[in-house]
Specification:
The protein is an all-alpha fold. The protein has two domains: 120 residues, no CATH class; 121 residues, Recoverin, domain 1 (Orthogonal Bundle). It has 13 helices and four strands. The protein has a two-stranded antiparallel ribbon with strand order 1-2. The radius of gyration is 23 Å and the shape is elongated. The N terminus is likely disordered.
């Protein structure tokens, strides 16, 4: 009887309640952690077999399959361009690679021409051109490309908001101010990625929205960063959090989206930096 009651109680619990403690990232920290991503790239391109190398191969191989439209094991130059964009999206999310607009000056034709030249070099590497390349050719090229990029990644000056304790206050504030004043910069991309990550983690119902009862989790996680340097109070009152939620929920929908959270956080952070520089911030 007790077992039956226990089973019944489990069935009656909403699914999101039973799974809310689960990480949305699984065990692959490189998918959301900038420092972990940089280390993952180094491990994946180091000599010898490794877990990271297998994961990198899987990541590149699946990306290749995604753009292989007719599923014949080959891609052409147009699909190669799409594939490069697909793979580059991950380092760009961390602010570790420029957007194609920045890299090619916003010129689509220039991007396509450059990628076509790269494709042709791969296509003719071992013989006459075929007009297609296979996964072996792509993964070999991609790994060589990552090796080159890893060698020049600056691991000291870029701030990782997920590991803010590794930096000092001045470095953090300078990087944050640079990010907010330069929305097309890698610094802002890193700031954006952090906010997106904590939003996803706080959204335990997996709806793409945050209700009032989840806002405290979200704000406390985001505020953990400035609190490391004593730049924010240890907690907020319910009344103040209600006011914050209502200011974001301008349509009175009962929830906020990531876009609204991002807009509010950018404006809020700019104000706090201004106040701090004027000697009117939380930390005197």
């Amino acid at each position: 009887m007790l077992a039956a009651r226990a089973a019944k109680s489990v069935v009656q619990r909403p699914l999101w309640v039973r799974t809310c403690a689960a990480s949305p990232w699984g065990g692959e920290t490189w998918r959301y952690d900038k420092n972990a991503f940089k280390q993952w790239c180094k491990d994946a391109t180091a000599p010898g077999p490794s877990k990271a190398k297998r994961e990198m191969y899987g990541f590149l191989g699946i990306a290749f399959g995604d753009v292989d439209a007719n599923k014949d094991g080959f891609i052409n130059d147009r699909q190669f361009d799409i594939l490069c964009e697909k793979v580059a999206a991950l380092p760009r999310r961390f602010g570790l690679a420029p957007s194609w607009e920045k890299e090619y000056g916003g010129d689509v034709e220039k991007r396509k021409a450059t990628r076509k030249a790269m494709f042709d070099a791969l296509d003719t590497r071992n013989g006459p051109a075929r007009g297609v390349i296979g996964m072996k050719q792509f993964t070999r090229w991609a790994n060589d490309h990552v090796v080159q990029k890893v060698a020049i990644v600056d691991t000291k000056t870029k701030v990782d908001f997920y590991h803010i304790e590794e930096y000092d206050e001045a470095t953090f504030l300078n990087y944050l101010e640079h990010a907010l004043n330069n929305p097309n910069s890698g610094a802002f991309a890193s700031f954006y990625e952090f906010l997106l990550t904590v939003f996803i983690e706080a959204d335990v119902k997996c709806k793409g929205t945050i209700a009032r009862e989840e806002l405290d989790i979200l704000l406390d996680r985001a505020a953990k960063v400035p609190r490391v340097f004593g730049l924010a109070p240890p907690s907020g009152t319910k009344e103040h959090r209600d006011k914050i939620f209502n200011s974001m929920d301008s349509n009175n929908e009962g929830y906020i989206t990531f876009r609204k959270f991002l807009e509010w956080t950018v404006d809020h952070t700019k104000l706090k930096i201004k106040m701090q520089k004027a000697g009117e911030g939380y930390k005197k």
